[in-house]
Amino acid sequence: MMGHTLSERELISRIRRQANRTDQGLVKGIGDDCAVLRNAENRLSLITTDALVESVHFDISWHPPFLLGRKTASVNISDIAAMGGIPRFVLLAMAVPAVVESEWLTGFLDGFLSVLDEQGAVLIGGDTVRSTGPIVCSVTVLGEGDKDRILYRHSAQVGDLIWVSGTLGDAAAGLAMFSSIVRRPSALTEWPELCKAHLDPTAEVELGLLLAVSGLVHAMMDISDGLATDLAHICEESRVGAQVFAEQIPISDQLVAASRELAVLPLDWALRGGEDYHLLFTASSTVGERLEKLVYEKMGKAIYCVGRIVEGNGVALFNSGKSQEIAFGGFDHFARHG
Amino acid sequence: MMGHTLSERELISRIRRQANRTDQGLVKGIGDDCAVLRNAENRLSLITTDALVESVHFDISWHPPFLLGRKTASVNISDIAAMGGIPRFVLLAMAVPAVVESEWLTGFLDGFLSVLDEQGAVLIGGDTVRSTGPIVCSVTVLGEGDKDRILYRHSAQVGDLIWVSGTLGDAAAGLAMFSSIVRRPSALTEWPELCKAHLDPTAEVELGLLLAVSGLVHAMMDISDGLATDLAHICEESRVGAQVFAEQIPISDQLVAASRELAVLPLDWALRGGEDYHLLFTASSTVGERLEKLVYEKMGKAIYCVGRIVEGNGVALFNSGKSQEIAFGGFDHFARHG
User: What pairs with residue A92 in β-bridges?
Assistant: First the structure.
């Protein structure tokens, strides 16, 4: 692997400490040209990669480095959760300008590693290089799942109900709070749920695994780009359409309060805000109650039915008796005229 | 995965075409939250990640996009070759400023994919995001190897001979040609071998596999940071020392000619130039002839013995009867006073 700076040495020594974690699947961790992994029998490997760019995906002026490290790990692990897998191994490649202080890097790495520890995943490789521009973090996560229990986007069926695993729009509202009006540290205490949703989202690995193992779910993904866009992905891949009912969309009290303060429609944030990292899944309407009960009994958690899968294509929002196409960018149109 | 730009759509459509390649290990390629892989029995997985940053690792003013795409793939695949593995699956995450033309991106991607095709590897995922700064390419390569034939850095033994698989310093000389004096298109024709070494290095997958399967090699890595530094890594990991003999280091005729033109010591480029991506390996002195013969008969290629593994630590260069420590940055010192 390439590139050497002074701070890379510090980083690597911190990384190596965490990488001392043993794992039966890990033959060789950091320190050679590649990490070497032993394959688990009857399991499939899941792999995902994401790049996060400073001032495009995050703003270090208000995002504390520890929480940004946590978010960087969580949003990537969320892709593993979204298929019903568990995260196992992580690689982190960072391009960092020379002006970034080692204190910032240490905080970021501590946050990143804290999520890995919570999730039982191990950092097995990476690369830290100088950059002449913004901080760029590229994360690759390897996970695994039972070979008969992986949940894809392409398996939604006509007649399925559509579920989400948490209130929508909180992360977008949190971002709006930081970026448009508040910009004051007290925002963290005034809007704790919204701030947490934006700064430190949780990858729903436990729920994803529970749903996968239940055998009750057809299609699943995580909500990273907003319900409207992500549901459209499921529809495209499954060659079906979807109907979403506005009054069924779970919206938090804090979101409603924040929407009044910023004069935004709560539904706008909820449908296309993105970055909620809750799970979006479909299941036969006959198993709805069983699913709700299962998730509540195992995790003390509610899930919310927001619509149904229909023949055709696209995503239609039903609101106060009117329907409106909202797939992908479609909700922009709705927001202007709705 | 996150981030959407217009050019991402083009990119993804190109990527999907290449990703139509079938592979028995690939259950699901691009199009879901993760790629899904079926594990091969009795094989170990190899994984490596690298970030390349514009104006730190490459300069688009003289590096044609097709060749830069090739190099980006090759330098990452080289880490798989360095362990005796074969590359199987690749993920590419790119942060790209809006000003970069789609023609450039297309050229880069064509080059990147051409190497994957040559190596029999499949692109299974990625992420393209906007950047406010330099182009950053993060590549993750998954490979595999026979579980008893992976070659590590930590297995060098006292008494081993040290080998390299090609002339050293050519990439550094090619870079010097482009960056210091020449800066004219004719450099490509005047110094073809040096330019190729810098612009379009080859990952020595076939040789790495041959050496691994031979059972004759103890430790191996690729030469990305220069012989002095990379040999020091083998010494550290294996807890041994090394002696390198200046007159045995293979140096190309073009390097000698270029060194005269730029008034540089050829040995300086050869020992610490880096980016040659040849293989560096050690084997018992009793099998040296067998190794040379094996590589020549199977690949029509020469390998070069440049030194030997000794007790102790560090890397000592013997040159005209004098010896000098050259591990890691040590050769700077040598270059000033030698």
Answer: A126, A139
Residue among A75, A93, A225 minimizing CB distance to B51: A93
The two structure tokens encoding residue A101: 């202080």
Nearest Cα to Cα of residue B225 among B163, B181, B276? B276
Query: Chain centroid to CA B322: how far?
Result: 31
Tell me which residue in A32, A51, A82 faces B138 most closely, judged by beta carbons. A51
Listed residue (A268, A261, A305) closest to A283, CA to CA: A305
Query: DSSP class of residue A155?
Result: T
The reported pLDDT for the residue numbered B100 is: 86
Counting DSSP H helices and E strands in chain A, the numbers are: 12, 13
- Cα distance from B254 to chain A (closest Cα, Å)? 26
- The answer to whether A1 contacts B33, with C-beta atoms less than 8 Å apart, is no
Q: How far is A321 from chain B (nearest CA, A)?
A: 32
State both tokens at A257: 């309060």
DSSP A179: I
Ordered mean pLDDT values, 10 residues apiece, chain A (338 residues): 46 65 79 84 90 90 93 97 95 90 89 94 87 92 92 97 97 86 63 92 98 97 95 96 97 94 91 94 97 97 98 95 82 42
CA angle B259, B263, B267 (to 5 degrees): 50
Type of residue found at A277: Y
Q: How far is B35 from chain A (nearest CA, A)?
A: 5
| Closest residue by Cα to residue B243 from B231, B261, B230, B255 | B231
Q: Are B227 and B271 in contact (CB under 8 A)?
A: yes
As a whole number of angstroms, the distance between CA A165 and CA A151 comes to: 15
Q: Which residue in A has a C-alpha nearest to residue B57's C-alpha?
A: A3
Quick check: A277 and A222 in contact, CB under 8 A?
yes
Chain A hits for B94, Cβ within 8 Å: 51
For B91, residues 6+ apart whose C-beta sits below 8 A from its C-beta are: A47, A48, A49, A140, B35, B123, B124, B125, B126, B139, B140, B141
Q: Tally helices (H) and strands (E) across chain B.
A: 12, 13
Interchain proximity B131–A225, CB inside 8 Å: no
Question: Which residues of chain A neighbour B132 with C-beta distances below 8 Å?
Answer: 53-56, 133-134
Name the residue facing B46 among A36, A43, A153 (closest C-beta). Answer: A36
Contact check, Cβ <8 Å, B34/A3: no
Q: Which residues of A touch B87 (CB under 8 A)?
A: none
List the end-to-end C-alpha distance of chain A, in Å, as a whole number. Answer: 52
Q: What are phi and psi of B323, to 5 degrees?
A: -120, 150
Q: How many residues does chain B have?
A: 338
Distance from CA of B40 to the nearest CA of A (A): 8
What domains are defined for chain A? Answer: 6-146 (3.30.1330.10), 160-337 (3.90.650.10)
Report pLDDT for A121.
93
Question: Cα(A211)–Cα(A132) distance, rounded to whole angstroms?
Answer: 44
Q: pLDDT class for B337, splitting at 50, 70, 90?
A: very low
Pairing of strands B136-146, B241-245: unpaired
Q: What percent of chain A has pLDDT over 90?
A: 67
pLDDT tens profile B168-183: 999 999 998 887 655 5
Q: What span, in angstroms and rounded, lies between the C-alpha atoms of A152 and A149?
A: 10
Cα three-residue angle B235-A33-A70, rounded to 5 degrees: 120
Q: Is B206 exposed, middle or buried (0-12, 13-18, 19+ CB in 10 A)?
A: middle
ipTM above threshold 0.90: no
